[in-house]
Specification:
A hairpin with a 6-residue loop joins strand 7 and strand 8. The protein has 26 helices and 14 strands. With 695 residues, it is α/β, with parallel strands linked by helices. Helices cover 63% and strands 12% of the residues. Strands 6, 7, 8, 9, 10, 11, 12, 13 and 14 form a nine-stranded mixed β-sheet that branches. Helix 1 packs parallel to helix 4 and helix 15 runs parallel beside helix 17. The longest helix is centred in the N-terminal third of the chain and has 76 residues.
Length: 695
């Protein structure tokens, strides 16, 4: 049989064509199957990622809701303690109730599914164990958290509200938050594993498709390739969005703590000899914005500050938000301190511009702590130095930039030692009052006593003045028990002297803002006056003028009003240093002003100061506000003040501060020609108060 046979040749060509067509069609079918499978996988991945993103967002929203409920609950407890307006409390209760409802509904949707949001509910044993088994028990912890939140809403007493708020804080910031974090982490890991597996399968299918299409017509593959590419792009964008969210703050879009760690690792790996500067920033009075205008306004402030601060940074500088109102700048510096200080000035100016746009922000400023981060030093050490410098900025009056210096570490150590010393002295009851008589300068008779804090050292002989402990006590909050220890002893002594026959028209006690704002201060004061029998109208609380100037933000004005309602007299200390007008003093309900010693000393040599002092006394008396001058050291100063109409004063010219035993003798000699009858009052009630507070 010859192959040249036309019939055979035609048959062979026909068979070959058929085989080619069959192979081509088969290849196209295989390609179509592979491409279709790949497309289906991609489409399922996209749909699944969309649902997963909804689940993760819902779970993440539970974290935000728990923090919001916790914060609102604690705000409600504080307002109940501070006797805030019923409308303010009702508003908070409404917000808490709404947030609890959102938390519970989102939890039900995550566990049992929701058709509207297409949440599938719990789909496997691992998720079931996460919600219903140890150690996480998300379901029971959310129920417990909701029960505590409802218990807080139903609290009828301040004490009950405080207890429930503390329980809510323990749950909201503790186990429940950890469990919710575990849920989100679990969902994110599960989503990444699923996406990775699908991507591996997709890549295998794609490779097979490319090999088959190598010999096929490009016009068949091209449309499918474009479709696949679009799907891949969508996945990449979704992945990029997830990665961006994991490294950026959701509120301000600045880098978060994780992004800061990544940048630090990169800089450490490059071993760049050029120095970096680290700037810690804290917004002054940010809490007041949240408490007064609400968290939405606080968020607006954070967003505005972050945007403006980012806009004024140079190329190569980076800004991060670590949480709350805590920001960190990482600056590339050529001229070291000079470069860093210039950037801080621009950031401060940008905040000032923002605050001018809204009355709610008009008292907000920023404090900066700056340190250099040279090559070879760990980032953590440098960040600690920046935080120490920031601490100095806030302690020095806020709204300033402070460069770190080595002595600051020593100062921190010294403050820590002082804090420990105060703690031990409180436990050993070694804080004691000293008394300085206040004099009617016309007669020389005593009209009252100012109480001054002293610390008796462990040797029993050395007595330390407030210069050694007061600043640290105020910063650490130890001023609250310290101040109460002084007041208890002073009131007990004053009650004893009254029994002995001493004439006391006033016992003046200094009180810090922290003491006055403390929820236990007013009840403790009431109880102390009751058990000692000391008349409430003879007790004067001295408040610094600068503290009253900040009263609108801190709530001090309301706290002082509560003291006045109790019957306590209010005296404005260091008057004139804060430039408060007499009209403002009248509106604050102050009974007496105490003119700062700097005015007394200055009036001796300065005619302008003398005129100011005279006008101050005249205006106060015209408005029926008492006046007392402090720091009188000479007879000339006494005569000058008497000539201006100021009849009450205190100072070394009359008597130095003295311990209670020394004052016994002084009273016997100066207050009454007859020696005082030494009668000791029972100290048991005061000791009982102290023991009750300690327990």
């Amino acid at each position: 049989m010859s192959t040249s046979d036309p019939v055979l040749s035609e048959s062979l060509v026909g068979d070959l064509s058929a085989n080619v067509r069959t192979a081509y069609v088969a290849a196209l079918i295989v390609v179509a199957l592979l491409a279709g499978t790949s497309y289906i996988l991609l489409d399922r991945l996209i749909v699944t990622q969309g649902k997963t993103a909804t689940i993760i967002n819902t779970a993440g929203g539970q974290r935000m809701l728990s923090q919001r409920i916790t914060g609102l609950g604690q705000s409600l407890a504080r307002k109940m303690q501070g006797n805030a307006a019923i409308s303010d409390q009702l508003l908070l209760r409404h917000e808490i109730t709404g947030a609890i409802g959102q938390l519970e509904s989102s939890h039900i949707a995550l566990v049992y599914g929701d058709k509207v949001t297409e949440l599938p509910g719990i789909t496997n044993n691992r998720e079931h164990a996460l919600y219903f088994s140890e150690p996480h028990r998300v379901d029971s912890r959310i129920k417990e958290f909701s029960e505590v939140a409802y218990a807080l809403l139903e609290a009828e007493t301040v004490e009950d509200a405080k207890v429930q708020a503390e329980r809510l804080g323990d749950l909201g910031y503790g186990d429940m938050l950890n469990s919710l974090n575990t849920v989100v982490d679990f969902l994110e890991v599960d989503a990444r594993k699923y996406a990775l597996n699908v991507q591996h399968i997709h890549l295998a299918l794609l490779l097979m498709t490319m090999l088959i299409l190598l010999g096929e017509a490009a016009f068949i593959f091209r449309p499918m390739e474009k479709k696949l590419q679009r799907s891949v792009d969508r996945i990449r964008k979704s992945k990029a969005a997830l990665q961006h969210a994991s490294r950026h703050d959701a509120l301000t879009e600045l880098g978060n703590r994780q992004f800061l760690r990544d940048v630090v690792k990169m800089l450490e790996a490059t071993k760049d000899p050029k120095s970096q500067a680290i700037v810690s920033i804290d917004l002054d009075r940010f809490k007041a914005v949240n408490d007064t205008y609400g968290h939405a306004k606080g968020d607006e402030l954070l967003i505005g500050f972050a945007k403006r601060a980012h806009d004024v940074l140079r190329t190569g500088d980076r800004a991060f938000r670590l949480g709350g109102d805590e920001f960190v700048l990482l600056l590339a510096v050529d001229e070291c301190e000079r470069d860093a200080l210039k950037v801080c000035a621009r950031v401060a100016n940008s905040l000032e511009e923002l605050c001018r746009t809204d009355p709610a922000f008009n008292r907000v400023t920023a404090s900066f702590g700056v340190t250099l981060w040279p090559a070879g030093q760990s980032f953590h050490e440098a960040l600690v130095e920046a935080d120490i410098a920031l601490y100095e900025s806030k302690g020095s009056g806020r709204n300033r930039v402070t460069m770190f210096e080595d002595w600051m570490k020593e100062a921190v150590n010294e403050r820590n030692n002082t804090e420990a010393m105060i703690e031990l002295a409180l436990a050993e009851n070694r804080f004691e009052p000293h008394f300085q008589p206040q004099i009617d300068m016309r007669t020389g008779r005593m009209i009252g006593l100012e109480v001054l804090a002293r610390l008796r050292a462990q040797d029993g002989e050395t007595v330390l003045t407030p210069n050694h402990f007061l600043e640290v006590a105020e910063r650490t909050g130890q001023i609250i028990p310290l101040g109460m220890q002084i007041i208890e002893k002073a009131v007990h002594h004053a009650a004893t002297w009254r029994v002995q026959g001493a004439v006391l028209s006033s016992l003046s006690v200094n009180a810090s803002a922290a003491q006055i704002l403390d929820e236990g201060f007013l009840p403790s004061l009431k109880e102390l006056l009751e058990v000692t029998g000391y008349p409430v109208e003879l007790l004067t609380i001295e408040v610094l003028e600068c503290v009253m100037l900040d009263g609108t933000d801190t709530g001090i004005v309301q706290a002082v009003k509560d003291l006045r309602d109790l019957g306590v007299r209010i005296e404005l200390d260091d008057f004139g240093m804060g430039h408060t007008s007499i009209a403002n003093v009248t509106s604050l309900g102050v009974h007496r002003i105490k003119i700062d010693r700097s005015f007394i000393a200055g009036a001796m040599d300065d005619d302008g100061m003398r005129h100011v002092l005279k006008a101050m006394i005249a205006m106060a008396q015209a408005m029926n506000i008492g006046v007392l001058a402090e720091g009188i050291e000479t007879e000339l100063q006494q005569k000058l003040l008497l000539g201006m109409g100021c009849v009450y004063g205190q100072g070394y010219h009359f008597a130095r501060p003295m311990a209670a035993d020394a004052l016994d003798d002084w009273l016997g000699k100066h207050d009454d020609p007859k020696a005082l009858v030494h009668v000791k009052m029972d100290e048991a009630p005061v000791k009982a108060i102290r023991a009750k507070r300690a327990s």
